[in-house]
Amino acid sequence: MGAYLRTLTSGDTFPLEDFNLIGRSEEATIRLNDAGVSRQHATIRREGVHYWLVDLGSANGSYVNDVALTTARVLRDGDRLQIGGAVFLFDQSESSSNTDTTMLGTKTQVLRRNPVPVKTTSATLLVGDLKGFTQLSSQLSATELAELLREWYADCNTIMKRYGAMIDKFIGDCVFAYWPGIEADIRQKAVDSARALREVEVAVTTPVRKHLRETRGVVLDCRIGLHLGPVALGAMGKGINTALGDAVNLAFRIESLTRQTRQPILVSKAFLEGWTEGQEWFEPCGAYEVKGHPNKVEVFSLRKEEAAAEAQASP
Hints:
Elements: E1 4-7, E2 13-15, E3 19-23, E4 30-32, E5 42-47, E6 50-55, E7 62-64, E8 67-68, E9 73-74, E10 80-83, E11 86-91, E12 102-103, E13 108-110, E14 119-130, H1 133-139, H2 142-162, E15 166-171, E16 174-180, H3 184-199, H4 207-216, E17 222-237, E18 240-244, H5 246-261, E19 265-268, H6 269-272, H7 276-279, E20 282-288, E21 297-302, H8 304-313
Parallel strand pairs: 3-4, 17-19
Antiparallel strand pairs: 1-2, 1-11, 3-5, 4-13, 5-6, 6-9, 7-8, 7-10, 10-11, 12-13, 14-16, 14-17, 15-16, 17-18, 19-21, 20-21
């Protein structure tokens, strides 16, 4: 069964493909010429019979039935979507017409084109992983584990959106996100988001985690690796849009070194190069061999005084 977006103002119908990028970008599948819409605002991706809506850290957010999107959501027939000034009705009924149209009232163009082309660009990368999750999994029921991860995913989505990151994927107890660009302000956002991922557990109020903390002593410990470098962004296959490259692999390796160094946040030498202010926050943590790299990788940890300030700032 196919699905469509139908405008509430004109009734125009836009067929959805397996992967749909919505935004102001020229590469968007559904292009919205609206100042309130980010270049890469949201995606709708088909998985089996379901269509998932994901906000890509947009400035003004995406809404379903007047509720702000904080995590990936399965769309249901009749859901009302608002992106910028455009309001759509999600239609998965078989009676919808398969028509390509132009939404003139909100200056929207629907572009029927090939998937987003692959392009290489510099990006700032974040990998967050929950320490000791394998052991934790053995202590919880499947339902408890699913509910725990669901709440953590929602926190990750909220934090990444706050700091303008695009979540590429969740892999079990791991989140991978990125920012297109490597400017100082983007690196600042990456460090701030890493701190926020650490701090959110201190004042956790979500029902499942609060219950598990009080009754089972469960406390999530997110370890984070930050790196930057060239990545390939775009469609890697039918319905698959992700970032790839050696820089991505190295970001995952840097996060894995948090166990060996016993440091919660690590950044690469490349992450600090040319960023004077950022260099003041971190101290050398040594050079380590990592799988797939001929040379040792030098990493830096948050200075103790910065870590202490971070803990004191936590509510």
